[in-house]
C-alpha cells in the first residue's frame, strides 16, 4: 500500500508541475475545448440535477461550467466538506455570489444557512475532480478520499464524469481497494468511455 501511495504522490507532483508549466494562453485554449466538449455531451445536456465542484488550484476551472448550468436552468449541486470524518454534504446552490462561503479546504462551498440539502440519489450527473485519470476511469484525486467515499453512494444511473486535459490521461492509475472509478473521462481532445 505504501508503494501505491508513493506512486500516486509522484503522479500528483508530475501533474502539478505540468499544469504550472502551461502558458496562460494554452491553459485557456485547453479549458475552452474541454468546456465545449462537455456542453455538447448528451448526458450533461439532459441532466436536470448536476453535481459540480468549485475547483482547487490544479483542477479544471469550473466557473464557466457553473454559469452555463444556471443559464440552462439546471439544478446545481455543490459539496460542503466535513473536516472530521472527511464527508461531504450535497447542497443546492441558487446563486454563486450569495450562497457560497470559504470552506475547510480553502475553496468556496455552499453555506448551510442558505442552501438546502440534496439527497445523493437525486443527482443525474456527477462531475468528479481529479489530477490524473486513465482510460479505464481510474482516478487520482487530492488524496483526501472525499470522492472515493461519495462515488459508491451515487445511484447506478448517475453518470460519473471526469474533466481533465489530455496531458493528464496516464497509462494506468495505481489503484488501492478503496479507490473508485468514474464512467466517462472528457478531455480537451476526446471523450473516453470506461473500458
Summarize the helices and strands and which ones pair or pack:
Layout: H1 2-21, H2 24-39, H3 42-46, E1 49-51, H4 63-71, E2 75-82, E3 87-93, H5 96-99, E4 100-102, E5 108-110, E6 116-117, E7 125-128, E8 132-133, E9 139-140, H6 146-150, E10 159-163, E11 184-186, E12 191-193
Keywords: ATP-binding, Ligase, Magnesium, Metal-binding, Nucleotide-binding
Family: Belongs to the 5-formyltetrahydrofolate cyclo-ligase family.
Binding site for ATP: 8-12, 139-147
List keywords for this structure.
single chain; 195 residues; alpha/beta; Rossmann fold; eight-stranded mixed β-sheet; two-stranded antiparallel sheet; 12 strands; 30% helix; metal ion binding; 5-formyltetrahydrofolate cyclo-ligase; ATP-binding; ATP binding; FTHF_cligase-like_sf
Describe the structure.
With 195 residues, this protein is of the alpha/beta class. It has one domain (2-193): 3-Layer(aba) Sandwich (Rossmann fold). The strands form three sheets. It has an eight-stranded mixed beta sheet. Strands 4-5 form a two-stranded antiparallel sheet. A two-stranded antiparallel sheet has the order 8-9. It has six helices and twelve strands. Strand 4 and strand 5 (108-110) form a beta hairpin. Its EC number is 6.3.3.2.
